[in-house]
Amino acid sequence: MNNFQTALHLLVVAVFLATACKKTETTENPGNNTSTNPNKEKVVVAYNPEGTIESKPLSESKPQGSTSDKLFSRLDPKKTGVNFINPILKDNPRAYLYASAMGCGGVSVGDVNGDGRPDLFLTGGPVPNQLLIQTDTLKFTDFTQQAGLAGNKSWGTGSSIIDIDKDGDLDIYVCNYDSANELYINQGSGKFIESAKSYGLDFISAGHTPAFSDYDMDGDLDLYLMTNFFYDPRGKTPPNARIVGRDRSGKVIVMPEYEKFYGITSINGNIVNHDTVGQSDRLLKNNGNGTFTEQTKEGNLVGKGNSAIWWDPDADGRPDLFVANDFRDPDFYLKNQQGGNFKNIIKTAVPHTAWFSMGTDSNDLDGDGRPDLIVADMSGTTHYKQKIGMGAMSASAEFLATAFPRQYMRNAVFLSTGTGRLREAAHMSGLANSDWTWTVRLSDFDNDGKVDVFFTNGMAVNLNRADSPELSKVFPGETEWDKHQRAKTGPLKEQNLAFKNLGKLKFEDVSKEWGLDHVGMSYASTAADLDRDGDLEIITANLDEEVSIYQNNSSNENKILVELVGTLSNSNGIGSTIRISAGKSKQSRYVTLTRGYMSSGEAISHFGLGSEEKINELSVQWPSGHVQSFKDLDTNQFYTITEPGKEAQSIPKPETKKLFTPLKSSLAGIKHKETLYDDYEVQPLLPQKHSQLGPGMAWGDIDNDGDDDFYFSGAKGNPGRLIRNDGNGKFASITGGAIGADSGAEDMGSLFFDSDSDGDLDLYVVSGGVECKKDDPLLQDRLYINDGKGLFKRSTAGTLPKMLDSGGTVTSADFDGDGDLDLFVGGRIVPGEYPTSPRSYLLENNAGKFTDVTEKMAPSLQSRGMVTSAIWSDVNNDNRPDLMVTYQWASIGVFINDEGKSLKNHSTTSGIGELWGWWNGICAGDIDNDGDMDYAVTNYGSNTKYKPKGINKPIRIFYGDFDGTGQSTIVEAKYENDVLLPVRGRSCSSHAMPFLLDKFNTFDSFARASLNEIYTPQKLDSSKIYKATELRSGILINDGTGKFEFSPLPRIAQIAPGYGVELFDYNGDTNLDIYMVQNFYGPEPETGHMAGGLSQLLTGDGKGNFEPIAPEKSGLVVFEDTKSLTRKDLDGDGWKDLVIGVNNGNLKVFKNNNPQGNKNSIITLVGKTGNPNAIGAKVTVQYGNGSKRIKELQAGAGYLSQNPSTVEFSYSSENSIESISVIWPDGSKSTHKTTEQNELASFKIKQPQ
Fold it and tell me: Helix (H, G, I), strand (E, B), or coil: what is residue 941?
């Protein structure tokens, strides 16, 4: 070192010591907003005796890097002084850790010397840790040695910069692999003293990440110490090595020399399986006296931890914890139960988790004010990466099908709902796949007020080389790292990814546009406003190259920073929630440090505000219970908020009355029970199961006592249940009889109607499913004849035609106008021949005997596709019932009634002929109040790997003989760019078609091949081809002539497949609202359960617009595999309640609480002989304000559902019903004048004779 360098070094040391002692210094005029020095004097702009808020202008942004027009510039390490590298040292004794979760050190940020500038602490594996003090804007100097932080040459992992002793300066805690963790206490003099042992924090473990929070709300920081697992440096052991043995008592144990690395995973007789096992994580309470006490028992929280984050999704003020565990080990979701107790609620809170859970982060992704969560995995972003990375999935098939909760190889995007259940939206948001990800960071990088996403990627070894013959070889004494060095797989260098939040859970890949498309091996990463100009820089630890610092170049948007100073709470307000409102924007930030992967940030919250120039309100909810609120604040400020010093007053949380609540009913205990069946034995490449598509349900008064009774469809081996209503809210099952004798059939749709014109309701049940062969007699539909007292027997032979097709739905109307009810029965599937079209039936009622007139009256209806639902409804306003039919792999069918003589196919001219989808349910109502029938239709939704890209790039399915065996096979296909590619991988495809193993002898060759190259154009062209162009649920707005405009429902309604759906006025404003049930547990195991939804209530405005209602407000939290949906007033309050059918689960019943206090009129029509319930009638009410509302009476709609045969209209004292007009099924009309509103509660209108 020359004299100049020595002098410079001494000067920098002096600066560090001075700033460490003197933490605030006034250097400039606080009103000068162009200052770049973060040490400006703070100005008190408002004072509250219960605390203060201070502000100073943000620094002026001065780009230190290139003059690029990109949002971020990677700064030159020579200019920043940050040249720290985690190198790959192949001769290091612990080089085997490069093939593990410990391959690269971590990153922490905090102002350790109190000069107002954030500093960096970087942990090293084979190299010493480093403390970098920011001595000038974005210029750092290494102070590791001077500060006493050189460490003990351990393999460093995660760290955190926290004020552990509440003295106002920041300390540093460091995790190490297989050596004592370290705690460096800041002396305030520029020196740190290692004190882990005295604090009780010198654990020796596979330490990974320290996560600090005040979980017991006592004002100091407690610790969750997350561990991974020990990697055996001896590698694979010789075949005769005794890893497992027995102790003297005969108990099976892991031998002492191996128990550090392995555990027993299962014992089956004499077969004992062992594997590497995670260690026990530790929850440690800060005693407030410089010591910590462990609160967990060994073995309670065992997992291969990769990340941990404190968050508060239920806004109760108590920090909860999410821990992401790698490969098969389930994640932990530890709910804070008060008093320092936690409950792992992962099984009840989420539909599924990531499989290889990596980094996690939390922030408000959907702008609803609640913290959401992303857990990263390592799913490829391209077709090639996904197929090369899958390898042979057969070894994990059983695990994928049985893990609880399910684990899938894709990122998980959890959305808080304010309830005990999270939604999941990875596919829908476009964030499901991010390659081999370590860190995920959720921050508003472009200051537009919406939270963006950043992923780091790469790996020291390339584990996506399933084809390498060398990797399949096992040599004793060889570690995973050694094996990859021998196989010369090389590192996996991948591009980091950035996604801009476009709003409404839409994200756009802007990696290149933002300058964040670095290719390498990036691990830990955090974000902090290093230059205090109000935007966030990104600091990323890379393996084998310098740490990256990306300066944020945003300049035009408004923003603020918020720092908290705790008094009763911990000194930095960790665990607080900060909320702001500015214009129409509402944002929240939960103050938590450990985020991402081996990454810890500052306790300073950043808000981007876009063009908003004022903050309407800023509030802080402190861990102590204090709540502060400040209004009319300026933007582009750095706010420091001090907590009140007096004891917080308990403020009761206002109870919000739910729109619906679970209703105690004997119906709620009725369970649908499936007999598990392997659909894939016959067709291995099925995209979904068809043996679990029920249950259906139907309502009808079977004993003419004035109360609607109930039929609940059964699964094969478990007969359907006929349930009698006693009129007092109690229901009793009628067991046995003809229905019980048909337990061998799989019930699908069911329908009560008067088949024989004798004045009572008979029961039609569709036989379906695939648990039999094609044309099996079990597939014959059943008609049960009512004896007039509610007892049923099977109809005589010849009453129904021979119908040996696997059916789905049934719906009735007098389509031929002869006074009795005819039927449409939709064919659902041909067993063993999916996706070919089964037969559907138009059945004409002739004096109680049904004739198949499909070919005669509606030939195009017969084999148009796989029917999922149907409804008879007057489409074109001619007062005749037309037929709307939903299909899978087809467009919605529109069949117009031609004066009862035929049904004309208007599907292609209806305006929706190109909307080919996986439609499930349909219901009718006048959505826009223009006097004609519109429709709500449910579909598969957007939260799926299937992404149709319009008419020209749909998703496709081919069914043909591709291997020359004479047997047809399924091939699914998708577009990537302009190339058609297979959906399924080499492993499962070759299981069904072994010729593919010879044609493509590597995963790589299969992954690179197009669909034409795999199966040839000739084979594809000669197969049956189906497509889907639209998967969103939506509404069909009718122009009055049967021409429709499709409008998708709001985006959150697309979060899961929709099934049962109802159009009804739940709140009494006279406009139709929508409720739909969601989720499907039937997709093939690699796709997994599509269960991201909780059902969805949407409020209509009467003009065709719908606003989603959050589950917290609606009270409708339905996470099961729901199918059918009906409405019935079960408690006699005049408002229909919701009854929901769950596949392989209990019925769910929800009461309509009518919180608006409006009134409702339920009208029963009494029709003529043959149609006693007047099915097909249209009812119009005239209100006092001159408005009208119209409804139809249908029998069979939604999904496998039949409502009671009534219609309902709401009204209020301000807008009463003046008259009711009926157009009866035969075209006759009548009008009923209302004189007293109390007569509207429930009454009958009889058809004039």
Answer: coil
